[in-house]
Amino acid sequence: MPGKDMTSKIGMPPLDVSIAFPQATSASVFPPSVSDYYQFDDLLTPEERTIRRYVRKLVEKEIAPEMVKFWEKAEFPFHLVPKLAALRIAGGTIKGYGCPGLSITASALAIAEVARVDASCSTFILVHSSLAMLTIALCGSEDQKHKYLPSLARFDTIACWALTEPDYGSDASSLSTTATKVPGGWLLDGQKRWIGNSTFADVLVVFARNMSTNQINGYIVKKGTAGLKVSKIENKIGLRIVQNGDILLQKVFVPDEDWLPGVNSFKDTSKVLAVSRVMVAWQPIGIAMGVYDMCHRYLQERKQFGVPLASFQINQEKLVRMLGNIQGMFLVGWRLCKLYETEKMTPGHASLGKAWTSLKARETVSLARELLGGNGIVADFLVAKAFCDLEPIFSYEGTYEINSLVTGREITGIASFKPAAVARRSSL
The pTM is what? Predict the structure, then answer.
């Protein structure tokens, strides 16, 4: 019967992309890196070049073949954590305690190389390393550093960093989660939202307002603590592999030994954010490099009207525009690292770097999506996934607008975060 025959076909698996579309190679076999047109590799130290090539080789081989299926299912590939640990980049710039002690340039390049293959994996590492681990390293006691950092550096335990709240995103310093002093420790009450890694993190670095001083303090909360509840945020269109969560804290007890002594106001988080914002500025660079490499190969493999797509002038113009963006983005990212290393980097420098690279990467992935035509909307060829993954990166660690205002305040001396009318009423 026709009805029965039709029913038997429902749910049939799709053809493997290599069979369904043999004219171009999928991203599971990652394309070679061809975006360093101005030979910026010459600007790097031998150590930085070695780390970059090592990370590139490993993620192309071990990570690239796995990503599409997990991105589609919005699941985290836990079996790949040992592969990510083998990169030996967790802890980044932290010296000692089992951490690699990399230069900020080497650490940024490593994040970019991971993002080139998969943005979600780079975000997983960035949250764990450049936010949570770095907070413990910069703001924790010696006992806390020895207790937590070696295991985190090996990825034996996983960390998250909980600052953002449902009511406070860009206005993070106004957070309303509270910490009340009790004998032997603290009780935390409140909510956090959009916290990457939180659904499975062993260690949660949580920021809360000290009810005695009204200042922001930091606390290390362990997985499974009574009163701690984490729920996964569903239905994301980007960074689908990253497990973002809503955190509910109801009288969560944190012993005094897990209070971070170096976080005594919101300004103390800036020491961490200064590094993490540099790292986040390099994520769009890596994403842009990956989609350029994909398009460069695809346009030469895919033929229309009897010739490769690379033969058409308009396609070459788009490819060159993408390449130009990457040269500019790389140079801004590299200079940002050098400013940090010489202690010349300002908050405005970091904010402009993140805002500008994410803006240019957004243009680059849009051009890539156009170049791949119909295949630009399926994840098998990287571009669709990268196109979606860039959207949350455009907004986190400071939206484009907020980062622009940070730089605007620095160059004009005028803070314009609040509408003028609100600011005038506040001063009355």
Answer: 0.93
